[in-house]
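Ligand-bound model needed. nicotinamide-adenine-dinucleotide.
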Amino acid sequence: MTACETPVQVNLGSRSYYIHVAASFEELPNVLAPLVEGRRCAVVSNPTVWGLYGGAVSEAIVAAGGTPVAVLMPDGEEYKTLSVFERVMEDCVTAGLDRSSVILGLGGGVVGDMAGFAAASYMRGIGLVHLPTTLLAQVDSAIGGKTGVNLVSGKNLVGAFYQPRAVYINWKTLASLPEREMRAGFAEVIKYGMIADAALWELLEETTAPVMAAISAHAPLPEVVGEIIRRCCEIKAGVVAADECESGVRAILNYGHTFAHAIETLTRYRTYVHGEAVAIGMHAAATYAHALGLCSAELVARQRAVIEAAGLPTRLPRVNVDELMAAFARDKKARGGSLTFILPEAIGRVKVVHGCDESLLRSTLTALQA
Ligand SMILES: NC(=O)c1ccc[n+]([C@@H]2O[C@H](COP(=O)([O-])OP(=O)(O)OC[C@H]3O[C@@H](n4cnc5c(N)ncnc54)[C@H](O)[C@@H]3O)[C@@H](O)[C@H]2O)c1
Ligand SMILES: [Zn+2]
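Prediction:
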């Protein structure tokens, strides 16, 4: 049985949808047919990803009975803006999209967030399909319905919860992904193992090093990559189904992220890509949890070994600890008043902890810089 025959369901009542995890675009026409037949389909993408996979996706849309049109945005986080969003909307008008049309997001998280917000907004909402092509997008951003753009004042400040009708992951597209992006995506994979799944964790302990070696050598991606992605999708789908709008259990997906956001802010988003900051953040969270007596030193060491096998950093950059504490406080304000840390208790199990032990946190952060 191929992975595509048993899709992962995101259970949201009448808005439920399936995530198809496949090793090619072969099954895409079958998945798209009920969604696009007789409709105009705007493929929102960027020139990089469109150049690699636009042809295959257009062919699949045609085979499914739809009419493809490319709507391209420039490549880069700096283009996830309202002005580019406006251009995308105008291009949808020019392409003749109506209320029965469909937007397909083909690319990483930037394209997916833009495509999702476009689908949520165009004529007050049209059909959306995600075709994620980065590891981060495949295991994280394409699932769960968060869409939006950045403002100068901050990231992701404008947007909507808007669920796709389907997600189709051809994980073989990762073969062309730059190595640093692949490693960064692995941080989110490691996160899923630690927060929810000891069996996935053991698989990662076995396979992270050989998978990374294959990537460095530009060798074919091992099949286990598809299995790992599928398991991450199941975990995220389960969490999202339980808490669509992030009022409760969905917070565990932020494991490592309180630290990561502070590190990203203090280094002005220049030093690390997101996944690298998350890796440092997970190591900081586990070290702090151990200092609090919540988890064993063995857990900290096992997590560190997998992070390092993925070629990701664990050392906290030399930033002022007072400034880090101030960044936590700003994050707390932005999130509505409660400083929250997701801390591991055992592999596959985390605890949501409100507030902090300030002196222990400060000494942990100082020690991590040594
Ligand atoms: N909506 C959510 O729930 C959610 C969750 C996490 C992150 N995000 C957002 O996701 C964005 C980051 O996404 P990302 O890490 O995927 O970065 P990205 O979208 O910028 O993609 C990284 C780079 O890889 C290129 N690329 C994509 N697929 C490729 C492929 N298969 N082969 C070769 N190159 C490829 C892209 O063109 C880009 O240059 C951020 O804007 C973040 O806010 C959203
Ligand atoms: Zn993240």
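The CA atoms of residues 70 and 215 lie 30 Å apart.
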